[in-house]
Amino acid sequence: MRTLLPIGLALTLLGPGALANPADPTPAEAVHDGDGAYRAQRFGEAAAAYGRELATQPRDVTLWYALGATRAVMRDGSRALEAWREALALAPARELLYRHAALVQMMMARAGQLRLEASPVDDPVARARAVLRQGGAAEALALLAGRDDYESSLWRGEAALAMGLSEVARRAFEGALRDRPGDRDALGGLAEALIRGGDLEAAREPMSVWLGERALEPDAFMLERAGEVAGRL
Asked: Could you point out which of 83, 110, 177, 218 has its C-alpha 20 to 30 Å from the C-alpha of 47?
């Protein structure tokens, strides 16, 4: 259990408002019933207060985040993940949530509290690919959070595309291309991310490189690429 303490300390420093930004349904200056108890380190009281508020405000992302952070500080990793999954369902583009969820999963695995079944090898990329094969795009993003090597960036991009997060995917594929300029797989992913983001003009060059001598419309290109990606998984 003690191995969860570092994430607890980190989340204590972040505080329950760490997720908020001007685009949040709950603005940064909003005060929730549990915030004072959280800052006073009365975490049981804070968790109960956040739970009561969520009963009437179930779509408040910052409340779910705060409840997860409180549970993590209390070293209840599995219930922290439950709360953050609820937050991710409401705000799937929040990379902070993926980073925290991945860190808690790692701590739980090291403490023997979580068995990662997705792959027989201790390799985040292999695990991410395995859960992607099973449709677990959000879990794959969490597994690859904070990693910037070529393979991690490439599969983070594919996971983001599967979740409809075109901007997250674009940044991931651009990261892969920084490691391997001209890489066909990363260029294809970048082209699809740009198409899905509505920038057809910018997508033309990477799509052309991926297609080679052929010419396809964007929809046909994405359909063909989907088959190729499935083969690489």
From this structure: 110
Distance CA 101, CA 142 (A): 6
CB atoms within 10 A of CB 143: 31
Residue scoring higher pLDDT (89 or 172) = 172
Beta carbons of 144 and 165 less than 8 angstroms apart: no
Q: Residue 216 has what DSSP assignment?
A: -
**How many angstroms separate the CA atoms of 226 and 210, rounded?**
13
Q: Alpha-carbon distance 190 to 198, whole Å?
A: 12
The contacts found for 217-224 with CB under 8 angstroms, 24 or more apart, are 221/191, 221/192, 221/195, 222/192, 222/195
Of the CATH numbers 3.30.360.10, 1.25.40.10, 1.20.1260.10, 3.40.50.300, which one belongs to the domain with range 124-232? 1.25.40.10
Phi, psi of 125 (to 5 degrees): -70, -45
- Cα–Cα distance for residue pair 105/85, rounded to 1 Å: 12
pLDDT band, very low/low/confident/very high, at 109 (cuts 50, 70, 90): low
Domain residue extents for the chain:
2-110, 124-232
Question: Which burial class, exposed, middle or buried, applies to 32 when counting CB atoms under 10 A from its CB (0-12, 13-18, 19+)?
Answer: buried
CB atoms near residue 77 (< 10 Å): 27
- For 216, the token pair is 């396809």
**Cβ neighbours around 34 below 10 Å, total:** 24
pLDDT, tens digit, 9 for 90 and up, residues 2-43: 333 344 434 443 455 554 432 333 334 447 888 888 888 888
